[in-house]
Amino acid sequence: MGSVNATVAPFTTSNVILWFRTFWAIAASGFRRYSTYRQAALAGIVTNTVFGFLRCYVLLAVAGAAGSAAGYDRRQLTTFVWVGQGLLTVVQLWGWTELADRIRTGDVVGDLLRPVHPVTAYLATDTGRAGYAAVVRLLPPVLVAPLFFELYLPARWPTVPLFVGSVVAAVVLSFACRYLVNTTAYWLADVRGPLVLWTLGSGVLSGLYFPLRFLPEWVYQPLWIVTPFPSLLQTPLDVLVERDPTPVQVTLVVVQICWAALLLAACRLVQRRAERRLVVQGG
């Protein structure tokens, strides 16, 4: 038996350009990799569209004759649902266990021997996956919805760049959360427990099932600050439908970025600690 440890060269001014070139090369490879699953993408589009109708009619029923609920009018609720259905695959809350599987089988050793840090490599691949999902899984629901419902169009010019930045931050944050859940495989023989907890928590507390503002203010406001979950879906969608004034939108995106940076740092810390104890049979 032998221990495995990965050494990664520190960032310097001379290798920053090389780092970015490597990152985007891996991201492009991830884009091509996920673009091969055409049948799965088609099935996902149909599923997201069907659930879009179901969720939209439920929330419109909640709005009822008053035409609004929790500060959202009918157009905002419709946009919240349909763009949320598209973002679900872009952000990808669930369905990724590649790292945990490689840890369990010992294949993670190959990741540790590569010159690119595992967190960077997996993040780059996930960035390519998100880019492909933005084209194939986000656009179809957004194009289908206007045929049957009236959507909300942003009235303020800063909303669009803020929304794009919010989605990028949500993708990075989701990756960091999923990476941390997967790394529990370094210490646990079975990661199904952490995965179930993550699936339940991220679904309920991210705004996937219903807007978190449907909850009492004393419940959802602390959730936004002390947990990363609302930053996964609720924040991008609230920014898009202009639920708040522009200064509040900017604040929410800043909170997202802080959570993403904090959890990415946690990923690297956990990875470093895990490498100290990783033992491969026969190595």
From TrEMBL:
<feature type="transmembrane region" description="Helical">
    <location>
        <begin position="248"/>
        <end position="267"/>
    </location>
</feature>
<keyword id="KW-0472">Membrane</keyword>
<dbReference type="InterPro" id="IPR010390">
    <property type="entry name" value="ABC-2_transporter-like"/>
</dbReference>
<dbReference type="Pfam" id="PF06182">
    <property type="entry name" value="ABC2_membrane_6"/>
</dbReference>
<feature type="transmembrane region" description="Helical">
    <location>
        <begin position="77"/>
        <end position="96"/>
    </location>
</feature>
<keyword id="KW-0812">Transmembrane</keyword>
<keyword id="KW-1133">Transmembrane helix</keyword>
<feature type="transmembrane region" description="Helical">
    <location>
        <begin position="40"/>
        <end position="65"/>
    </location>
</feature>
<feature type="transmembrane region" description="Helical">
    <location>
        <begin position="193"/>
        <end position="212"/>
    </location>
</feature>
<protein>
    <recommendedName>
        <fullName>ABC transporter permease</fullName>
    </recommendedName>
</protein>
<feature type="transmembrane region" description="Helical">
    <location>
        <begin position="130"/>
        <end position="149"/>
    </location>
</feature>
<feature type="transmembrane region" description="Helical">
    <location>
        <begin position="6"/>
        <end position="28"/>
    </location>
</feature>
<feature type="transmembrane region" description="Helical">
    <location>
        <begin position="161"/>
        <end position="181"/>
    </location>
</feature>
